[in-house]
Model the fold of this input.
Amino acid sequence: MAPAETAPDVRALDTLTGLLREDLAAVDAIIHERMGSSVGLIPNLAAYLIDAGGKRVRPMITLAAARLFGESGMAAARNLAAAVEFIHTATLLHDDVVDESALRRGRTSANFVWGNAASVLVGDFLFARSFNLMVDAGDLEILGVLAQASSIIAEGEVMQLAAMNDADAPLDRYLAIIDAKTAALFAAAARVGAMAAGQRGDVADRLAAYGRNLGLAFQLVDDALDYGGRTASLGKNVGDDFREGKVTMPVALAREAGDAEERAFWRRVMGGGGQTESDFDRAVAILRRRGAIDATLEAASGYAEAAKAALAVAPPSAMRTALENLADFVVRRAS
Amino acid sequence: MAPAETAPDVRALDTLTGLLREDLAAVDAIIHERMGSSVGLIPNLAAYLIDAGGKRVRPMITLAAARLFGESGMAAARNLAAAVEFIHTATLLHDDVVDESALRRGRTSANFVWGNAASVLVGDFLFARSFNLMVDAGDLEILGVLAQASSIIAEGEVMQLAAMNDADAPLDRYLAIIDAKTAALFAAAARVGAMAAGQRGDVADRLAAYGRNLGLAFQLVDDALDYGGRTASLGKNVGDDFREGKVTMPVALAREAGDAEERAFWRRVMGGGGQTESDFDRAVAILRRRGAIDATLEAASGYAEAAKAALAVAPPSAMRTALENLADFVVRRAS
Done:
């Protein structure tokens, strides 16, 4: 693809970061203040993950969703953005314990450095602190949105756990899982940003729809990238879902389109029956032959378009354009 | 001790349960409704622990603290009591993962039945749901009290983790640990009950002092019972702290009063250097010789007296008497 065409998209994250520079610096200060504790292990472990170069996508969505509607409510929006990042970080810490992951953001995961016990408890601490931040934001209705999202995320995580190594897990259950474990926090992040700026009702609903659809697109692209994406450029960090027996959308689609031999293959490799070294390459080959990567990315495009359409509720602005471009970028990073 | 003297105390819990019968039934209904989820593993695992015969001491304190000041605010108090029990249950689930416990409330612990991953995630769910309940109670200041308590509990748990197998852990650090991991929730449970009944300022502070001191007494008695209590009747469930290398008050006191040989013993057995079968009996013998069990129970009595004194802020009533007797009962169960 020509640089002239892709440039606006791939720079979407940078543009958003630029527009929110001051807010993000303020959120970073809040995050570092609120992860503080006289118990040294807490800030050490939290900083290890929080300062590891995450892109702060979720807090940016909260901040941008507020700024779409003017300058008011930004103090609350900053607290809420930090709260959203704490919820996300707590989830990552617990996820790594649940998945027994050894890597996160390209480094040894916290549970492998400090142990599972510390990761569980520091995750609990950050989760509790997220509610302290919400209390400071001072709006019970907003707090209810994030409390509800937190319940749904946990439900999604448990659903995913129960579906692990279930080679026959249906596609709609998978979509329900990512709706809960990923999209719910994106949706809440956008909704509470709009609410902090005084928006309620349909406007808040549409912003939540932006976040939810963006989150779904984001997750499906991640799923496709786990099998090398469209170009099957198998760099680092591929194959995690495969090894963990997580039936994501590409596998669910290929399984449904496959012949008896392929279905037997999927049942063996995803059903906890053991994997050989060549199985992952074979999986990628089947996924490509069945068009499952393309179909997954097309679904992601559909969600990204829905996300952009939902933004029409906000007045046109550089921020709105940046959020629209973010939706495109989320999908194009897999091309 | 003569039955005539002990009877009022040992019946304290029953009396309180009787006075709060309707409230407790309502709280139980809220708990069972709010632990519900379409993800079957969640209510199954939650019910396993919640219906295992816990005494609901913390929610009773919330309910009683509200009833001390009349009939108002009981709808909120019931939601808050359920929230407090959810926080407690989430903490137990995560504790058992952290401690790799195989037993809880006399049964195989949830993490040994469903695995650590499920215990972590269902704990997260219950913790999130506790905040949903607090939102329904509708008071941001009350929510702040429980959010703050949740942070402090997590800090206490991390402190305890960091102190594990540190045979030289000083007594004041141990007291800081139990103040955070145990007493903070008792304090918040009592405070939010009073707040639900419209009490603020000094009255709420005094109720929090009741809860905190009761929690400290409760924990110290537990610590003494883990070594058989005053009578050294070594039934089931003793020796957990010893095996886990947790330096509780009895050990800290005996270590400080001990000779060189005893200090070497404590360093070996609590320092992660391995334990032999006879070590626990030797530990109990040293603790008794050094008067460490008695001294721990005396400290517990002091906290129980402080708890009772704090209740003077409330008008005299059968409920206040029951709460006073609860403080006595907490200590006497170790006699």
